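Q: I have 508 residues here and want to know how they pack in 3D. Can you give me a structure?
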Amino acid sequence: MVSSTVRTRTHRLMLVVGVAVGAATAGWLAGRSVLSPEEATRRAPEPSPITVPVERRVIQNAVVVRGTVRYAAEFDLSVDSDLGDGSLGALVLTGRLPAPGTELAEGAVAVEVSGRPVFVMQGDLPMYRGLRPGVQGEDVRQLESALRRLGFFAGTPDTTYDQTTAAAVRALYADAGYAAVGLSTEEQQQLAAAQQQLDAARVQRVAAEQALAEATAGPPQSQVLAAQGEVEQAQFAVEQAQRAYAEAVAAGADPAEIARLEAELAAAKNRLAVAQAQLEELTAPPDTTALQQALADAQAAEQAAQRNLTQLNATLGFRVPRGEVVFVPSLPRQVGLVNAKVGDTVEGPVLSLTASSVQVDISLSAREKELVTVGAAAQLDDSVNDINLSGTVAFIADTPGTDGAPPGSYYARIELADADPQQVAGLNLRVRIPVESTDGPVLAVPVAALVTDASGEVTVRVRQPDGDGFRERDVRVEVGLSADGFAQVTPIDGELAEGDLVVVGSQW
């Protein structure tokens, strides 16, 4: 209930008490109206003021309810493990079955099914598919984050399962004493065929490179030098034949001699033409168009084979079958119920995991729900067991009557800070959730010290020692937040300080 309700009830109670006191006083006065002569000479005693000191305190309005402490929600661990090729057959519990009360930390093997481990890891997404190189998604990031917390993944978690992820998975399994699931026989054959194709393409590329290199290297230097020597000799022979022919013509040699010399000159010129042609053919750049195309084709074939092998490597490797990792919202957790034994065929939940932390379940009225917000601080106590705890409102239902709350009430959950679950589990605690508070300690007086006159002004009466007696003075105040029988006051006419005595009533 809200403290404002407490104030209303307190005012009603004070009114009832006032009426009762007034009636009793009227009866007492009526009885006193008939006096004996001796009594008539007596005087009534003077009333004595009741005072309390002004305090400096934090004043808080709060929602106050009762709540039951229990362990956080249970998680049922089911197994759906398969290597993807049906090789495990029927799923049978073969070992590692923990006893109730065993604490399972992240990375622990919860059970062993058909010789394969089932790891528990922290995460909100269920393991809805097997994970392997090449797949992408937030479930991959979740796996990599868990592997990083366990010390197996050194990179930055992302959404792509690559060879770094596969290496971390292999390390996880090896650390637990198991072999990670690798390549199937068919996958190994695909990988071998791709490697052979790449090797053959490399051989073709090397042969094409050699053929082109030989073609562009040119003839041996010895052949070039020989051809150049032949051209020089032919040029010399032409020069000699021309000189002999010219001298014969000038000397008037007979026509037969001149004809012979003319024939020799023609033969020498022909020899020179042949020698020059052979040198040009020998030193001319070769036509390597076909060889260059053959090399380009060989290179393209090698690149295609390399891409094919890379793609296979990116999608083949150590993987995680769907049932070999179970993600739990929070870890560590304790084993609650064990629903099977070694040798049983797996059917339904095998274990129930209970969070090692505790929570407090409360119910709020519609009015209280309007005042309380998620994230609000809460104080919890139990005077019988001398327990004082702090917590935080973690959840408030939007619909009344859900999560076990009574009809018309709203379920809310409080998470405790530094609570010993074994000490507090099952207790019913008083829960106080502040909904309004002063900013730090303020001057505060009991509500009974406030006096309101007909004009609506509020005063408190301060009683101070004065010589052998006391003197009283009224201080006009502004009233702020009030709760738990106290009210915040600020003096607006007169002085008021911590420790001053204020009158709250009288006694005879």
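Q: Anything worth noting?
A: The longest helix spans residues 185-217. The two ends are 36 Å apart (CA to CA).
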